[in-house]
Amino acid sequence: MGVTGMRVPRKEDPRLLRGRGAFADGFHARGELWARIVRSPVAHGTVRAVDVQAARRAGGVAAVVTAADLPPGLAIPVRLALRGLPLTDFLQPVLAAGVVRYVGEPLAVVVARDAYAAEDAAELVDLDIEPLPAVLDAAAAAGDGAAGDGAAGDGAAGEGAPRLFPAGNVAADVTLDYGDTEAAFARAAHVAEAEIEIGRHTGVPLEPRALLAEPDPRTGGLSITGMTKVPVFNRDVLAAMLGIDETLIHVRAIDAGGGFGVRGEFYPEDYLVPWLARTLGRPVKWAEDRAEHLVAVNHSRQQVHRIRAAFDAHGRILALADDILHDNGAYCRTHGITVPELTVAMLPGPYRVPAFRGRIRVLLTNKTPCGTYRAPGRFEGSTAREQLLDMAAGQLGIGRAELRRRNLLRPDELPCRRPLRTLGTDVVLDAGDYPALLAAAQAEAVRLGYPALVARERAAGRRCGLGLAVFLEKSGLGPQETADVVVSKTGTVHVYSGGTSLGQGIETVLAQIAADALGVDLGTVRVVAGDTALQPFGSGSWASRSTVVGGNAVHAAATAVAARARQLAARMLEAAEDDLVAAGGTIAVRGDPRSAVTLAQIAAAAGAASGYLHPGEPAGLAARRRFDVTHMTYPYGVHIAVAGVDPGTGEVRMLRYLVAYEVGRAVNPALVEGQLRGGVAQGIGGALLEEFSYDEAGQPLAVTFMDYLMPTAAEIPPVDVLVAQQAPAPGNPLGVMGAGEGGISAAGAAVASAVRDALGLAGTVGRLPLTPARVAALAEATMTPQAGQPHGPSTGGDLCDLHR
Amino acid sequence: MTDRHQVRLRVNGTEHELLVEARRTLADMLRHDLGYTGTNVGCEHGICGACTVRLDGAPVRSCLVFGVQADGADVRTVEGLADGDELSDLQQAFRDHHALQCGFCTPGFLMLAEAYFAERGLVPPAGPGRPPPGAGEEPSEAEIRELVASNLCRCTGYQGIVAAMLATARARRAAGPG
Fold first, then answer.
1. How close does chain A come to B33, measured CA to CA in Å?
2. Which ipTM was obtained for this model?
3. Is B122 left (phi over 0), alpha (psi -120 to 50) or beta?
């Protein structure tokens, strides 16, 4: 019986539970020096001088390096270059030279005998920076003024707004559209519009970043510990920047304390630490502290949407349009305009949208640069779209769920090719039954007592609301994954994957797939993920791709090894392959179980000196296979949430939360559920608690966990999960879709929907996060005469009424 | 010129003696000077709790304790929980309930739980020592959730952690005083 589809215990757990996780900061090298980055204390300024004399003289200091010491012109490259847009004007230098553009920007590096000495010396670096006015608002950067009409940008900064770059503050102005939206709006029976803002927040994994770079003077090579996510890409970037052959750099497989999209991109430290190691001829170790992490690592999410939808008399969408300002921080780093493009391309979600126009302007501001964070573009877009639909439902006099039902694509309308391209591929909604999952989610919520809970709370005089969000996700991004499966002489099956261990359980999932393809015990499979010497053709773990693309590559490679094993066994047993049966890790002649040979014996038969090899045949029981994809696969889901709101204090308590998610096929259901639950927790954090705010001078106000509020167990309710495996993905042999982002993707939307319902808002919630201050203000506004036609809290019944 | 002080301490039953600067944190001393890298540092300002160890039985944020404060103390870290190849009952419960994903916060939660259970006389089935009088009380799920709210986890959403701790508490209660 196979293990795919089973809740097998994770292979990663024993070492992690014992405290033997291979986190980068736990690694040391003899003779290592420690690096400490000197960072700009100013949001925007002209660098007059960086005086390192005192730092160089400090005890235990080996070197202090500024931009002047580095090769000239070094910049962080764009990993995902989209739409042929050159962003070279907006790239971040490895170390700032003449100008600094955000608080936290690296200006210098101190290298010393230990971390404490390095930090002491870093404080002695004297920075002479003349402050410049800071741009902190995307609208100001765009020159939008109060009510911009979306006039095409020409790269110029708004009148009066300081320029971050000679080329201006607008990195890109991208429109994706199809159909005639203006005609649709003109003839619409009803138009709904809203302005919705999502606050700046990001992944904040619990492990801060760390790196150890060890030079090998004999070969000129480098061993790197601490790179993850896209190790082959990072290796190649580093090699190009150092001017060395990429195979001289070995990025080791590690454990990572959470990735969430933000860990593992190429940051300035990823160049500096290896460069220092090579230059000094010593191992160099570096670890950031949390305060650094919160200003240095990619931020995300900050967008303002002006979104409109046109409806016919029956509440069917005729057109959807959105004009978005995306605050990208001070530079375009490795993600380029990925998040903005995804926001627009995924905005229509799982709905029938005959005409669409999404415009997004990518603005540069004097804040931490931005990149992808779990469900990038979708958390933001779903919040805006679903809030608009909630509001429109009220305006149209249609139930919120009913409005979704009328507009969700039906199964017979799939596959649906949207005339939109993102990440270099067309958006083709491949398989699924969106209305059925909505109905299943509603039924489950009723079964679990959600509407009854809302009714009880309201009867007791408390504000309580039921929220709904329906969403489309994406997973399985190409172009490829490569996997090696190698059987060694002990019969151990080694899988060398191009993904990386971020905590998601990749070693377990890939082992399950390999074990089933080979018919062996799960315990005999050992997975190494993200070692660039073992797997030089990996494309990394991000965008919920590892099970889909990596898993199918492993399946192909393991299947090839199984075939090769059969071929060799036939030679060993002097039988025809058709007369062989494979079971329990052995191959035997049918009807003669005593003839059985083990995988270890077969591996030995493939040994270099083996007589079973034909002339010229390569030795070894191994296979390398590549799985390539041209289109992503699109999972989907529904979130239903119950929120209690105290209108006086503005406190929001999430009481219940349901995620219903179609995953195609779950290789390990426990891991799928874990991803969904973890995503919900992060999503609730982004909806209620987490925000990076700045003062007027551009000083970040959230640099510790005192101010950047991470959700604890007190803020996260038990999450109910309904995993559907009704719609196997048509684009891959395993039929799998990714699950990494399904829990977070619509959480902003669902929480907003519940709070809006609790307060009986006529409009939208307007902005995330829904802090107590914001919620109290919204509550108060509903009690003033100007509130207009009172909407009144819905009974929640429309959400779970299946009879309309 | 840095001041260095002699520290003698016992970690998971093993005696250690070393010289450290007065400002060296217990977390850094354990991790980098003594090689107990199982204890992780997530924030260095006492909020996340990933660095939780037991200092003379009590749970402490080792990032907020100086190494010199551990002079003469008995320190317990995650490395002391398993018995050779065998995971402790609490560790096994974490595994069974999918209470960890990246594992970075896990040692802190394990030590927090063991300290809490010890206070309540919920010792492991084969554990040494007598429970204090009136001990062995089973905590409610609400109490466990409140305990879990002491530390941060970014991966799991806490449900598995609460379930694992509750299951362990119940099993130890059922097993009776040690």
1. 11
2. 0.96
3. beta
Q: Work out whether strand A221-225 and strand A249-251 pair parallel, antiparallel, or are unpaired.
A: parallel
Minimal Cβ distance to B100: which of A16, A116, A289 = A16
* Homologous superfamily in CATH for domain B4-80: Beta-grasp domain (3.10.20.30)
Distance from chain centroid for Cα A641: 23
Judge: B42–A290 Cβ closer than 8 Å, yes or no. Answer: yes
Q: Which two tokens stand for residue A261?
A: 């999209």
Taking an 8 Å cut-off on Cβ atoms, the answer to whether B157 and A712 are in contact is: no
Chain A residues in contact with B48 by the CB 8 A cut-off are: 206, 290, 705, 710
Whole-number percent of chain A with pLDDT over 90: 91
Which CATH code fits B89-175?
A: 1.10.150.120
Rounded to a whole number of angstroms, the distance from the CA of B60 to the nearest CA of chain A is 17
Question: Is the Cβ–Cβ distance between A187 and A318 less than 8 Å?
Answer: yes
Q: How far is A17 from chain B (nearest CA, A)?
A: 6
Per-residue model confidence (pLDDT) at position A681: 98
A608: Cβ–Cβ under 8 A, 6 or more apart, which residues? A619
Nearest CA in chain B to A10: B95
Domains of chain A, first to last: 13-133+208-256+263-296 (3.90.1170.50), 303-476+631-800 (3.30.365.10), 480-628 (3.30.365.10)
Q: Mean pLDDT for each consecutive 10-residue tract of chain A (804 residues)?
A: 92 98 98 98 98 97 98 93 89 97 98 98 98 95 55 46 93 96 98 98 98 95 97 97 97 98 98 98 98 98 98 98 98 96 97 98 98 98 98 97 98 94 88 96 97 97 98 94 97 97 97 97 97 97 95 97 97 96 93 95 96 95 96 95 98 98 96 98 98 97 98 98 95 94 98 98 98 98 64 55 37
User: Contact A174/A359 with Cβ under 8 angstroms?
Assistant: yes
Considering only CB atoms, which chain A residues are within 8 Å of B25?
Answer: none
Q: Pick from A544, A546, A555: which is nearest to A495 by CA?
A: A555
pTM of the shown model: 0.96
For chain B, give every domain's residue range: 4-80, 89-175
